[in-house]
From TrEMBL:
The keyword Transmembrane helix applies. GO terms for biological process: monoatomic ion transport. It comes from Caenorhabditis brenneri (Nematode worm). One of its GO terms (cellular component) is membrane. This is Neurotransmitter-gated ion-channel transmembrane domain-containing protein.
Length: 45
């Protein structure tokens, strides 16, 4: 039998987990796009 307190913590953990997944996905897509679409910079010519 679960208590109300355990259910609230489970919901909070799922919300934080979903937020981190979305944030990681957005950052990953942005970083991959930067590597693909921006040409490399020549430091030494």
């Amino acid at each position: 039998m679960r208590s109300w307190f355990q259910d609230e913590w489970k919901f909070a953990a799922q919300a934080v987990d979903r937020f981190c997944l979305i944030l990681f996905t957005i950052v990953f897509i942005i970083c991959c796009s930067i590597f693909v679409f921006i040409p490399p910079i020549k430091i030494l010519d």
